[in-house]
Specification:
- This protein has 227 residues and is of the alpha/beta class.
- It has seven helices and ten strands.
- Strand 9 and strand 10 form a beta hairpin.
- The two termini are 33 Å apart.
- The mean pLDDT is 94.
- The structure holds adenine (ADE).
- Adenine binds next to strand 5.
- Adenine (ADE) binds next to strand 5.
């Protein structure tokens, strides 16, 4: 998968993809993330990328011409399956959406800043709008990092144990069961004996029960989604 990201603050995106699972994905050639500074397409000597909004009101708006030039330059290199704008008024990201997007080949992510981007970009280029939750960030960069992380780990071959993403929380609309590692007794805090029993069937039953119990207590709304 190839992901281009358009950002006015590209430095914010220098580190997130250089560690752990996403780093491994890049090293294995399964994921390539390129961050592009929107200012490269800025206007004039000052490389202007935003302006006051028509009709008045606080906050700057990213210029339609700058974003159009940026998008068209990148789209000339690569055919995008989705052009995604990160915005608090988009559809709220969930595991199902990440699963769906992880099946695409080429993505362009646009990070807004200031008050937002000129609406004509959304109307004419953007194919999908995603929010990472009902709160407002200073820009779309951290949201883009969240999206790329959640997609990247789903790409086949990225996780060591191919099955492990299948057991993540939210796959099947369930939270994941609790996990333990050595020692089995620490300060008299004991690991549930069933996990030490060696009986795979009992362990699986216990995990299913725990997952269901946890989901009922913490996120009953997820169980309604199955109906
Ligand atoms: N930009 C600002 N806030 C955001 C959010 N919650 N999700 C996605 N992009 C954003």
């Amino acid at each position: 998968m190839h992901i281009d990201i358009l950002s006015a603050v590209p430095d914010l995106l220098q580190s997130p993809f250089q560690h752990s699972i996403l780093q491994r994905a890049e090293q294995k050639g399964l994921l390539k993330v390129d961050v592009h500074d929107i200012r490269k397409w800025g206007i004039g000597k000052a490389r202007q990328i935003d302006d006051y909004q028509y009709g008045g009101g606080a906050g700057m708006v990213m210029l339609v011409e700058v974003l159009t030039n940026a998008i068209e330059a990148l789209a000339a290199e690569r055919k995008y399956d989705e052009i995604i704008f990160l915005t608090p008024d988009g559809e709220t990201l969930n595991q199902g959406i990440s699963n769906e997007i992880s099946l695409k080949n080429n993505l362009l992510l646009i990070c807004g800043h200031y008050k937002g981007i000129d609406e004509r970009i959304r109307e004419n280029f953007v194919t999908r709008e995603i929010s990472i939750g009902d709160y407002v960030l200073s820009g779309g960069e951290l949201a883009a990092a969240v999206l790329v992380d959640s997609i990247g780990r789903l790409l086949p071959g990225v996780l060591n144990d191919e099955t492990s993403a299948l057991f993540d929380s939210f796959q099947d609309n369930m939270l994941a069961p609790p996990v333990y590692t050595r020692p089995s007794n620490f300060r008299d805090w004991e690991v549930p004996p069933v996990l030490l029993s060696g009986n795979d069937r009992l362990i699986e039953e216990w995990r299913d029960e725990q997952a269901l119990d946890r989901t009922k207590k913490r996120r009953p709304d997820l169980l309604d989604l199955d109906e």
